[in-house]
Amino acid sequence: MxxxxxxxxxxxxxxxxxxxxxxKTLLAEFVGTLFLVFIGCLTCIGWTDEGYAPSVVQIALGFxxxxxxxxxxxxxxxxxxxxxxVTVAMIVTRKIPLFRALCYIVMQCMGAAAGSALLKAxxxxxxxxxxxxxxxxxxxxxxxxxxxxxxxxxxxxxxxFGVCDERREDVLGSGPLxxxxxxxxxxxxxxxxxxxxxxxxxxxxPALVTGLWDNHWVYWAGPVFGxxxxxxxxxxxxxxxxxxxxxxxxxxxxxxxxxxx
Length: 261
Description:
Structural class: mainly alpha
Organism: Amphibalanus improvisus (Bay barnacle)
Helix content: 55-70%
GO molecular function, one term: water channel activity
Number of helices: 10
Oligomer: single chain
Shape: globular
Pfam families: MIP (PF00230)
Keywords: Cell membrane, Membrane, Repeat, Transmembrane, Transmembrane helix, Transport
Subcellular location: Cell membrane
């Protein structure tokens, strides 16, 4: 999707009647976020009667690889944002119209809630625990938690914009894998601090199902702030320059990047 250049394009209301495939993109965001929360939080469940507790690395890999596989699977449909912080960053950099973005965020939250509800239904009640709910370490203040969430989400969104910059010719390997690994590495470091949400929907789903809303604002404000900073920085300072073809040095590749791993 090219960057919008007018207020009408920015609002995107024309998509309601003109885009027959809009429902597919919304369904993709719902399904992608559902499995992100279901599989990711599934790795957080401990079977205490058997003396089993998941490790930090296991949880980090669970979330990171799930993000990578979902991006590979549905990236061509919706761009696989599956994260309101990514969607907000796309709004401010004019990569997605407002109406579509709001629909994405609603579907992401609904998918997260459905994923958490499925996890609760399929897990024995005596080992539910918090169903993988993100919670601040008791030694942290809310402000510190905000800072951690902002910085780790900054890393994620910066990687998203970097690997999906269509002006770059030096990106090698798998874009979805790079994005998934950014999630993994931030989880390894931040799980003991905040649970490493990096995604407001990921925290919203379990909070809705468990009723644990303590410091929930941290998991919206931190990731959204970090995503805005990363998206704005990449768009204004880090975006690759326009390419010149070998046959015609005056012809520029004006394609705009989009979040489609």
